[in-house]
Specification:
The structure holds two protein chains of two kinds.
Chain A lengths: L3 E4 L2 E4 L5 E7 L5 E7 L5 E9 L2 E4 L6 E3 L9 E3 L8 E8 L10 E2 L3 E5 L1
Parallel strand pairs in A: 2-11
Antiparallel strand pairs in A: 1-3, 3-8, 4-5, 4-9, 5-6, 7-8, 9-10, 9-11
Chain B lengths: L2 E5 L2 E5 L4 E8 L6 E6 L5 E7 L5 E3 L5 E5 L4 E6 L8 E8 L8 E3 L3 E6 L1
Parallel strand pairs in B: 2-11
Antiparallel strand pairs in B: 1-3, 3-8, 4-5, 4-9, 6-7, 7-8, 9-10, 9-11
Classes of the chains: A mainly beta, B mainly beta.
Chain lengths: 115, 115
């Protein structure tokens, strides 16, 4: 079955450490997105990508970085510059070419905590 | 710019009672609207979408929503709540003013179902 796989499900970060969250999709979608979810705040967009080797900052990109070397993969790195990284991180994808009428499909998320 | 407001961060309903979750949108262009459901520690699952066809949209699990342009609303309903409906629900609007397929999410409504 097609879908989005996020790993790991739980991740712990030490002070000053960078960590990378994996997101892989086999839906053949062009666009991919990373969101951060905090209680009571809904989903906030971190980064998004429309095509390979191109990505754009979302609303809360500071302290995060991404790459898009393959269509199916969009890893997110939480750097040591992100001072409050504890959150639930969600990866999504969509076929953007249909002009916004298609929904985004989501992975099951990675919960990141500080040690 | 498009935006979404969900009225009520928590809703408690009795099993068998009507579920009504409120969503109002702001958009300068005809919107595309979505309702998602999230179970604990999982990603978001699409319930239904409105893309300018019928104003009454039927989704999965017995949910439906009605698009009312005059009220700028897209409220979600289910005639009879089940215990399995306990989850968080998000309303989202497609940002159609660009071509990135982005969504703007509401803050979410947590639904509790009591026996």
């Amino acid at each position: 079955d097609g879908g989005i796989t996020q790993s790991p499900k739980y991740l712990f970060r030490k002070e000053g450490q960078n960590v990378t969250l994996s997101c892989e999709q086999n839906l053949n979608h062009d666009a991919m997105y990373w969101y951060r979810q905090d209680p009571g705040q809904g989903l906030r967009l971190i980064y998004y990508s429309q095509i390979v080797n191109d990505f754009q900052k979302g609303d809360i990109a500071e302290g995060y970085s991404v790459s898009r070397e393959k269509k199916e993969s969009f890893p997110l790195t939480v750097t040591s510059a992100q001072k409050n990284p504890t959150a639930f991180y969600l990866c999504a994808s969509t076929n953007f070419k249909t002009g916004g009428t298609q929904p985004q499909h989501f992975g099951d998320g990675t919960r990141l905590s500080i040690l | 710019a498009q935006s979404v407001t969900q009225l009520g961060s928590h809703v408690s309903v009795s099993e068998g009672a009507l579920v009504l979750l409120r969503c109002n949108y702001s958009s300068s262009v005809p919107p595309y609207l979505f309702w998602y459901v999230q179970y604990p520690n999982q990603g978001l699952q699409l319930l239904l979408k409105y893309t300018s066809a019928a104003t009454l949209v039927k989704g999965i699990n017995g949910f439906e929503a009605e698009f009312k342009k005059s009220e700028t609303s897209f409220h979600l309903t289910k005639p009879s709540a089940h215990m399995s409906d306990a989850a968080e629900y998000f309303c989202a609007v497609s940002v159609t003013t660009d071509s990135w397929g982005k969504l703007q999410f509401g803050a979410g409504t947590q639904v509790v179902v009591t026996p």
